[in-house]
Design brief:
Layout lengths: L2 H10 L2 E7 L5 E4 L2 E4 L5 H10 L3 H8 L4 E6 L5 E9 L2 E8 L14 H7 L4 E6 L6 H15 L3 E6 L12 E6 L7 H8 L6 E4 L5 H12 L3 E6 L4 H10 L3 H14 E11 L6 E9 L2 H8 L6 H6 L9 H10 L5 H7 L3 H12 L2
Helix pairs in contact: 6-7, 7-9, 8-9, 9-10, 12-14, 13-14
Length: 353
């Protein structure tokens, strides 16, 4: 079996990730759960991992560096890879990306995401834990813009995960480590490249956050990701990542520029055959902007609960709706809830207790 056959077999099983480790079983992640996948000898695993590295990457690995990159099969299917050493042995994690970019409708996303894609300026954040589908949701939003608006889109990624086919938009995709050395330098350059829309793979530091804010403030629509679980936590994380002397300025910029925060978590369905995206959605309305400006972040959740007509919802709201429709189980709703006491009360009310 070739490495390409190996990848395609994992895809056929519906796997999202493959973990290859010298000296340990090969496993795949299906619907969020790890399962053993075939029996590969240590020699084969070692050779397979090295076969996907360039000579330069192999040299960097030998020098003690972890390697991040993406690669494409002959059929166009793309994978994101991290190669590392553990206990002195080679290992790698392979994320199997969708072969095509799904639409927002195919992802069953609410109309509010389409509304955010229509904005002409400001900041939109897609957040969630690793493996929650943030990259796929963002790709669907960017491709929606691509198909509906004649504009210039610049993506800054580490690594590039989805390749866009240009439609109405002109798209330039820049990869950290290959096309430019850092997110901050790529953002700085982007401001001189006449963009309308900028996608920042991740806002990792104060410099990147500051530049993203400046881009949003100067008339660009900026999308970015963070590994946060709730809208309030996202706002806090951005402000806390900045030095004390800059926090008031960032808070003021955020209150003016924030268009929305989409927090998502993938949760298993009741039949165990699939996963669905439970969402927390915050829209930058006057009430939310005022709470950010006056540093009353903890009150954001109350605003989400009372603003359903504007498309907002908490993670608990989303989980409760799935439970009510029989999509997820009671146990799953409780496990993924951000406020278990409140969730228990809500589910008990639904059950008529």
């Amino acid at each position: 079996m070739t490495f390409e056959d190996f990848i395609m077999e994992a895809r056929a099983l519906g796997a999202s990730d493959i973990h290859l480790t010298v000296g340990a079983p090969t496993v795949v992640r299906i619907n969020g759960e790890l399962r053993k996948f075939g029996e590969l000898s240590d020699v084969v695993v070692n050779r397979t991992i090295l076969s996907i590295l360039s000579a330069e990457q192999e040299k960097l690995l030998t020098e003690g560096n972890d390697i991040d990159f993406s690669f494409e099969l002959k059929n166009g299917a793309r994978q994101r890879v991290n190669v590392f050493r553990q206990s002195g042995r080679l290992a790698c994690s392979i994320r199997l990306l969708n072969e095509t970019i799904p639409t927002l409708d195919e992802l069953k996303m609410p109309n509010v995401l389409t509304d955010l894609a229509k904005k002409r300026r400001g900041l939109v954040l897609v957040t969630g834990p690793t493996g929650s589908g943030k990259s796929t949701t963002l790709a669907a939003i960017i491709d929606h813009i691509n198909k509906n608006r004649a504009c210039h889109i610049i993506t800054i990624e580490d690594p590039i995960e989805y390749r866009y086919t240009q439609d109405k938009a002109t798209i330039h995709q820049r990869e950290i480590g290959k096309d430019i050395d850092s997110f901050s330098n790529a953002l700085r350059s982007a401001l001189r490249e006449d963009p309308d829309v900028i996608l920042v793979g991740e806002m990792r530091d104060y410099e990147t956050i500051s530049l993203a804010m400046t881009a949003a403030e100067t008339g660009h629509l900026v999308f970015a990701t963070l590994h946060t679980l709730s809208a309030a936590q996202t706002i806090d994380r951005i402000i806390d990542a900045c030095p004390p002397f800059a926090q008031d300025q960032i808070r003021a910029q955020l209150s003016n520029m924030i268009q929305g925060v989409i927090g998502q978590t993938l949760v298993p369905t009741a039949d165990g055959k699939d996963r669905v995206a439970a969402l927390e959605i915050m829209i930058g309305n006057d009430a939310v902007r005022n709470l950010i400006r006056t540093n009353k972040i903890p009150q954001i959740e109350s605003t989400l609960q009372s603003s359903a007509r504007q498309g907002m919802c908490t993670l608990n709201d989303s989980l409760a709706k799935y439970y009510k429709r029989g999509v997820i189980s009671y146990e799953t709703a409780m496990e993924y809830s951000s406020d278990k006491a409140e969730m228990e009360k809500t589910l008990s009310t639904m059950a008529g207790f």
